[in-house]
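Section 5: illustrative case.
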């Protein structure tokens, strides 16, 4: 069972030794609580990296104490919103991986879909964290990390689901497309509503 101390080790191994680590994950006695803890901890640094520029840009408008307080509040609200959305997105993708198992006649396991969604996105979270450094190269690294996440998902399907490579390609592509569509629609709707509410609060506060 994965311990708190083992979280960074798993994150490193899933990037550097994915085939070996997926084999270990396959036999792990994991629980939703452990997977949630992994996602919750690993996604915190990239959320900070995303929201810090928001706070920094807002500070450029004024040095007034009231503006500084509201800028901090705005950044925290935005960061918390993105944080929750990211957790929801992982569970949506995990549910899609799980729900398509019978369609592709894969091995049934109630947690394997969530394992794939939780662990395969590790490179992207780590790459996004680096974007807090103001160099364009880290944006490209995030793109490479995203593509690597797709490969990790494919590899996980092959190993965790005992699925042939050709079939795993279609299974992975179908899951990514379905979950991506749902996530884009859901995130866009929630972001629009949240952005409107936050702007109204900001307008009245300032």
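Designed sequence:
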């Amino acid at each position: 069972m994965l311990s708190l101390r083992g979280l960074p080790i798993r994150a490193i191994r899933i990037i550097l030794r994915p085939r070996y680590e997926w084999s270990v994950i396959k036999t792990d006695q994991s629980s939703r609580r452990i997977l949630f803890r992994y996602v919750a901890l690993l996604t915190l640094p990239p959320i900070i990296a995303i929201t810090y520029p928001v706070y920094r840009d807002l500070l450029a408008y004024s040095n007034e104490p009231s503006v500084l307080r509201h800028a901090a509040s705005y950044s925290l609200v935005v960061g918390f919103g993105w944080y929750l959305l990211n957790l929801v997105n992982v569970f949506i993708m995990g549910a899609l991986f799980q729900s398509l198992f019978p369609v592709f006649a894969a091995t049934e396991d109630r947690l394997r879909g969530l394992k794939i969604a939780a662990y395969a996105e590790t490179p992207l979270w780590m790459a996004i964290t680096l974007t807090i450094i103001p160099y364009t190269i880290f944006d490209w690294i995030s793109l490479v990390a995203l593509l690597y996440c797709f490969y990790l998902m494919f590899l996980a399907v092959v190993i965790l689901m005992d699925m042939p490579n050709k079939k795993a390609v279609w299974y992975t592509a179908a899951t990514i497309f379905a979950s991506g569509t749902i996530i884009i629609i859901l995130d866009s709707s929630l972001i629009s509503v949240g952005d409107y509410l936050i702007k109204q609060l900001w307008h009245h506060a300032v």
